[in-house]
Amino acid sequence: MLLELEKRKQPSRAMLYLTPVISVMLTMVFGATIFSLLGYDGPEAVWDIFFVPVLDIGAWQDLGIKAAPLILIATGLSIGFRANVWNIGAEGQYVMGALAGTGVALATWEMEGWWILPAMCFAGMIGGALYAGIPALLKTKLNVSEILSSLMLTYVSVQLLYFLMRGPWKDPEGFNFPQSRMFNDSQILPEIGNTFVHLGVPIAFIVAVIAWYVLSKTVFGFEIRVVGAAPHAARYGGFNQKRTIWLALLAGGGFAGFAGILEAAGPYGQMVPQFPTGYGFTAIIVAFLGRLHPAGIVLGALILAISYVGGEIAQSSIGLPNAASGLFQAMMLFFLLATDILVNYRLRLGGARSGGAA
Amino acid sequence: MTEAILISILVTVVGAATPILLAGLGELVVEKSGVLNLGVEGMMLVGAVTGFAVTTMTGVTFVGIVAAAVAAAGASMIFGYLTLTLTANQVATGLALTIFGIGLSSLMGAGFVGQTVERIGPLFPPALAEHEHLRVLFGYDPVVYFSFAMTLVVAWFLRRTRAGLILRAVGENDVSAHSIGYSVISVRYMAVAFGGAMAGIGGCYYSLVLTPMWAERLTAGRGWIALALVVFSAWRPMRLLAGAYLFGVVMTLELHAKAAGFEYVPPEFLAAMPYLATIVVLALISMRKSVGSQAPACLGQPFKPST
């Protein structure tokens, strides 16, 4: 069978939205096959990972909680990716944001007041943004690849976390466990109604809406898109490429840092050495799956949240190792990148030139 | 006494340098062909787990190493197919390969956690390998000598052979190379496969020699250091060798400080050193004005023969 690719005059909008759906479906089919080959119940694994969390209303709160940090981080990353700025160190910025916010919490641990939580969140954003500022500085001043520098800084931030947890920030009443004090009531995000969904979840969704508005309706959003799509045109149009790099990285870091402190002040309620959980990397998949568009990112984050929650379900039901959900997530990205060709090219059965000259 | 300490330090440095040298050499060839594969960390993990699993099952380390090379080269073919045939974005695909490698290796290795294998012994007979002084030269396992040999082979291949010239041409100017009849895509496929095999051997060095056992994320980001090493080397094999040993020193600082009873600096700071050093080195390298011209001109750009 000969398949030929024919370039479309215009990228297909239908395919742009359809390929993420196709990738998720292909992931299910291939996932079931691979897990069957590895000796697990493949179809059951797919059912548990992708469908059970959606059908079980009890799991919805979990989905929201897992999706919130992914939405925030991926929204920030998408700003950079649109401008061809490859910040892949969001995990480190997430940790640094959480640490900065924790610093405020520890400084105010004997105080109470409505202002403490906002101050922690502000510190979180600044912490993440400043940390992303290092790759921005290196990129704009010395042309150091932001890919490598932002990633290296992730490993550095994890060591800083370990250091603080074992040393200066260790809970003095914590029986020598390497973790911070528990946050007090003024430092923990309130839960909504009688659920265990913390305030960070609606905040993440609201931020996505704001980001959609900024990216599609303002000059800033336009500038980001132009610099990414056509750097030369951008320079001609008076848009400063260096400023865009700064903005993209600071925004990405700020969003990741915000996600970090919301996570620390939400589900964790303290800082612990196990805090880095890979959201910064998973958010890269979310950003692509969501087509770098805030609305798509919300959907992408929900799908990835489903695979996390479902992964835990499959772990207890059929003993699928925890790493399985990571594998599903990577496959989704593979299939998305593979089917992306359908956006710009038309698949055609080759050989017979029945279609005539296009 | 101090001499014995120096020798034992050198042995640990060689251990730390060998896997990043191997993976770095592979990636150097890939990048010379104009492709940027950020999946090194993932391929190393696939190699590490495959090497360990196959060695455990067959009892023959050599078979394990070959299997590691084959498995990682196979993983690199996923990257190759997506970026070369389907012209997907190389940065995104490389990242996907790393995420994939982390997940796949944890899954494959789940049954091997806690097991150990017999570490590879020195290549030379004990008279040389355990000699008080000569062990500096002869005290290493075969993979170390293989990494030296491969440095020379890659340097010779790129500079002196016709195939190396074609590979560089493809990386510097794919359109011209294509127009004079070279198959850009197949050259790049071969380079990517070679890069995968080398990353796989580098990865299994962790699980078969350095630790020797399997644990999740055994490579701890060293694949990324290998990528930085290629930039550091300005795409030159001999300089890559020197860089790998320089990084080997930094990576073993924590170990040596602990052994020497040095307590003034927190261990977490020493553990962060290789990553900080990488950033500093990249910054220093970038300060030299000429560096822009040293990267292969087509690095990271997709190529579609029909257009």
Identify the biggest protein-protein contact and residues per side: A-B, 46 and 47 residues
Supply Rg of chain A: 22 Å
Using the alpha-carbon principal axes, give the shape of chain B.
globular
Based on the structure, what is the oligomeric state of the protein chains? Answer: heterodimer
What is the overall pLDDT average of chain A? 89
Overall structural class of chain A, as computed from helix and strand content, comes to: mainly alpha
Report the sheet with the most strands of chain A, covering strand number, pairing sense and barrel closure. 2 strands, antiparallel
> Could you give the order of the helices and strands of chain B?
HHHHHHHHHHHHHH
Structural class of chain B: mainly alpha
Mean of all residue-level pLDDT scores of chain B? 90
| Helix-residue proportion of chain B | over 70%
Q: Compute the CA-based radius of gyration of chain B.
A: 19 Å
Number of helices of chain B: 14
- Give the tally of β-strands of chain B: 0
Query: What percent strand of chain B?
Result: under 5%
Low-pLDDT parts of chain A are 352-358
Order of strands in the sheet with the most strands of chain A? 1-2
Helix content of chain A: 55-70%
Per DSSP E runs of 2 or more residues, the count of β-strands of chain A stands at 2
Alpha-carbon distance between the two ends of chain B:
67 Å
